[in-house]
Amino acid sequence: MHKILTSAVAAAMVISAPFAASAQDWTPPGPITMMIGFAAGGGADTQARLVASAIEDATGWTILPEQVPGNSGLNLAAALRDAPADGTAIGMVVTETLAYNAVREGNSDLQFDQFTMLATTAAFQLGLVAMAEGDFASWDDVEAAAAAGTPIRFGTATERQADMAYHMSQGSGIDFNIVQVAGGSEIMNGLRAGDLDIGWVAGAQAGPVQSGEMVNIATAIPTPLAESPDAPSITDLGSEFYLDGYFMFIAPGGLPDDARQALAQAISDALTTPETEANTLVNRAFGGPAILTGAELDGYMQSAVEAASNLMEAVN
Amino acid sequence: MQRINVDVVLGLVVLACALVAVVIWIPNDTGSGIVESVRGRYSIGDALAPTVAFAILGLAGAALLIESRRKKPTGQLSSRNLAFIGFMLLIYLAAILVMRWTGPALASIAAEGSYRELRDTLPWKYLGYVAGGTLMVSVMVSLVERQFTGKALLIGVLASLLMAMFYDLPFDDLLLPPNGDV
Amino acid sequence: MDYVLLGIQAVFNGPPMFSILGVGVPAALVMLFLGLLTGIAVGATPGLAGPMAMAVSLPILISIFGVRPEALLPVFGFLIGIMKGATVGGAVPAILFNTPGTPDAFMTTLDGYPMTRRGMPMRALKVAHISSVSGDTVSDIVLFVCAPFLAVLVERFLDLPEKTSLIILSLSFIAAVMGSSVGKGLISISLGMIAALVATGEEFHPRLTLGVDEISRGFPLVAAVLGVLILGEIFKSFEDLWRGPAVEVDTIEPEHRDKDGLMRGDIRRIAPHIARSSAIGTVIGALPGVGSTLAATLGYTFGASAHRRRKTSEQKDFGEGAPEGIAATEAANSAVSGANLIPVLSLGIPGNAAAVFLILAADSIGGFNPGPAVFNFTRPAVNPELVVAFGIFTLMAVGNFLNWTIGGVFMRSMGIMARVPIRYLLPVVLLVTMTAIYVQETSFVSLWIAFGFGILGYLFRRLDISVLPFVIAFILTGSLERTARQAFSASGGDPLFLFQSWTSITFLALAVVSVAVLGRRDGPGASKKARVEKS
Question: Is some CB atom of chain A closer than 8 A to the CB atom of C127?
Fold first, then answer.
């Protein structure tokens, strides 16, 4: 028994040795610019900045955060593409930026294979949200209102979400008025003000749902939502796709392997080390760390790009 | 009694710009039309808001032409003003060029690494900023005093050095010019 | 009403900056205090104004406190301090040296300087202080009561189409009342809209960029606003300075005849003027775009006619050194500042430059979006934005208290600031502004964008086009287009979506009326100019 354990440990060491050695050897040849593809002050921006400071504390590297918002992350992708591929420039976007928006925009310089995927940080907790006290508090209510001829205003924050809303409309036969707004918090404000009836929210609804103000009338990710485990899946309500995705760090294409591993390791450590602020935030507001790196991440991106193409085909 | 004055010229220029924009510029430089059919519904395209804005501009030009019939113009713009702006442009351009290139130029002569690697270390990170800032401030002060004095130079050096230290010393994350561009 | 308490708590129990005798001093209060002192000093310096100081300090504040929600109250504290301090400080050089420290203190020179020449500078300064702070306090109280009420009304009764119409009404009103003519007001508004529309479309093609990559992200708010407001002003003042000899600061020693300081009965004499002007300033301030200069002019004019009817023979006329004249002006221009935040906090519509910088701060930090959604009292969980809003109110109240107590002392020691030569000041302010923009945007492109907007601001000033409509349109156009798009989509693509409710039709009709009627007569800007020239 003892022997088996020892050899297992030895085997583990052999397997992880090259990874550990090269990751430890690599240091950035200067301060790292961290581009953030989200508006200042929001949850995603805070997450990126806390990861930056956790990495600085753990490794002693210098990280200079910089806002590059707009155009659903493609502005960041365009800026990052021109930056040196030596580990001194990284950026935080969502998987949807490269797996959907870049495909839709069609510019070959911005496709995901032009970049190096470093690590995901947290997964979308996407639900279809409505006010708990309102007329649309369940999918049955939505169907009943549609049957009665009430126009239903469906809030969406990205092109992919709008496509998914339209896809739901095709699958269920309900004719939604799809309203594009700036983000999940705007959708929740629209619901509160009565400007919208239902809408996609990617995690910020957890608090209002727990306090009983809002409900998840459906979940849009493959796993149940922590705050409403019983919500039906959108795949049971007429959709063929999920609205899943991750927050993700990327670097310019052609980043050397040792740099890629070291950066991915640093990001992963920043999120999983229990005493970091980054870890606390991700646990509190993003459903805990969800980290994909290396080949696993490349595989996820590959399949996400395919799913995006299929969705675009389905709605056109 | 219509006279050619600055308001009439302004009104005509504005009206012409608005026309050109609505007819040529907007249709060729927006991603979608005034109204688009998306996902089975009509929605407002990227061209609507610019068309409205330029229409208001055209309206403003017309209003100005009408107003200028009964009001004296209140503003004026002479070639001397334009010359002054040209002059400011030169000073600004010189200051920015000096800010951008002083550090990298000195680094290529005197240092081992590239400026990008040195941009977060003293004295490199201040070089360009202080040189460019000094140039701009002292030239502007000298212009007004109509002579170049040591005092003007001193004010330039002090002002830019103090500003550099004011932003840089207490705050790790702030980048002085040109350190975000190299 | 728990939110009132929460707001107060947020200020006083916020993260401490340092501690005295083991008691933490909240950062928000420290920053408010520092901002107030800065504001008084800046207001007292001719050539500098509150917005300039707010612009320069914003990036510094953001880097001190970061872009987290906890940063909001300290940053707002400092900005509110500047806002409050500058209105008080502006009177100092007006009274002592016949040079207004801020534009709205021009009317103060008319009576303040003659009082100084008669040997009563302290009395004049004390009258200015009392009037200014009283006006501000009245205005703030109106803000505290009205803003939440208005916001709740808006959120309850206005749907997307009505919100669209409301923004159209605000922009039309601003175009009509600001500047020398409606034509020029509309030029300013439409250019501001056009600048805001560059590269902000929904499609991936960045619209109206002429293929220039550098602006494919649009014009950064900071670069555009600081360019038009600050660089434009610097260029214009600098050219004036360059062309003509600077006006020497008048430093005639007053003949000491009268006893200086407040005299018995002064308060009673100025009280009615303070009350009248506070009311005028508050009403003017609540309308977006009508500035404090107009309030000061109106306060002074109404004050003068009332004074002429009532005064006793030994009291001075307005314009000859009457304390009532100072009171009428200072109460009016200070009463604008609080009420000016009513449209910002309740509707998200900025009414003046100071409000623009509060929006800029909120936009840079995030977590607080001024607008009707802030005043949502019905959420079961604590609404953090509402706590911030009441935190702001608390800061304003504390700011008034500080202004009452130590503001006067500090103000009276600020005479020295008027002696800083402006020819050294302008180039340094240019450098500081450039640095502030770069530090926030970290690219030379933004400096060139700022320069371009600076030239635009310069041309506006030379052609007598008001710049504030440009800035306000630049800020509002994004939400106008967004709201219109949403309203259109929500209606299912109805082309007449703006004409489906009486509220919306009324707003639109008022917009047309404001342009047509207010444009017929000479706008307030023009009449003010005429009056200033006469005096």
Answer: no
At C79 the three-state DSSP class reads helix
Closest C-chain CA to A213: C380
CA dihedral A271, A273, A275, A280 (to 10 degrees): 30
What per-residue confidence (pLDDT) applies to C192? 95
Establish how many alpha carbons lie within 13 A of residue C224's alpha carbon, considering only the half-sphere containing its beta carbon.
Answer: 23
Residue in B39, B43, B175 nearest the CB of A64: B175
C244 domain-assigned: no
CB contact at 8 A, C104 and C333 = yes
Assess B182–A contact: CB distance below 8 Å, yes or no.
Answer: no
Stated pTM of the model: 0.82
- Tens of pLDDT, residues A211-236: 888 999 999 999 899 889 999 999 99
Q: How far apart are CA A296 and CA A243, in angstroms?
A: 19
**Mean pLDDT of all residues in B137-150:** 89
Measured at the CA of B86, the angle between CA B85 and CA B90, to 5 degrees, comes to 115
- Of A308, C492, A200, the C-alpha closest to B37 is C492
Which residue in B has a C-alpha nearest to residue A160's C-alpha? Answer: B39
Domain ranges in chain B are 6-67, 79-168
> Dihedral angle at the C-alpha atoms of C318, C531, C334, C312, nearest 10 degrees?
20
pLDDT confidence of residue C347 = 84
Distance of CA B104 to the CA centre of its chain: 24
Do the beta carbons of residue B52 and residue B45 sit within 8 Å? no
Tokens of C400: 């008034």
| B57 contacts C191? CB cut-off 8 A | yes
DSSP secondary structure, C99-128, as one string? --SSGGGHHHHHHHHHHHHTT-HHHHHHHH
CA dist C227 and C222 (Å) reads: 8
Region class of B113: left (phi > 0), else alpha (psi between -120 and 50), else beta:
beta
| Residues of chain C contacting B30 with CB distance shorter than 8 Å | 201, 203, 205, 207-208
Residue type, A298: D
**pLDDT tens by residue, A71-115:** 788 889 989 998 999 999 999 999 999 999 999 888 888 899 999
Please indicate whether, in this complex, the C-beta atoms of B119 and A31 are within 8 angstroms of each other. Answer: yes
Question: Among residues 67-96 of chain B, which lie with CB inside 8 Å of chain A?
Answer: none
**Is some CB atom of chain B closer than 8 A to the CB atom of C235?**
yes
d(CA B175, CA A62) in angstroms, rounded, equals 13
- By residue range, what is the domain housing residue C148? 1-166+261-420
> Is A68 an interface residue toward C (CB < 8 Å)?
yes
d(CA A3, CA A162): 58
- β A32-36/A89-94 pair status: parallel
ipTM for the whole predicted complex goes beyond 0.90? yes
Handedness of CA C273, C275, C279, C285 (dihedral sign): positive
B141–C424 C-beta distance less than 8 A: yes
> What's the Cα-to-Cα distance from A94 to each of A36, A207, A303, rounded to whole Å?
10, 22, 15
One-letter amino acid identity for C314? E
Measured between CA atoms, how close is A302 to chain C, in angstroms?
23
- Alpha helix positions (H), chain A: 2-25, 43-59, 74-81, 95-96, 102-105, 139-147, 159-172, 184-193, 206-210, 257-272, 277-285, 294-315
Tell if the CB–CB gap between B119 and A62 is shorter than 8 Å: no
C181 CB within 8 Å of a chain B CB: yes
Q: What is the mean pLDDT of residues C80-90?
A: 88
Please report the pLDDT score of residue C359 as a whole number.
84
Chain B nearest C-alpha distance from A57 (Å): 13
CA of residue B158 relative to chain centroid, distance: 25
Domains contained in chain A, CATH given: 30-123+245-315 (3.40.190.150), 127-236 (3.40.190.10)
A/C interface, count of CB pairs below 8 Å = 83
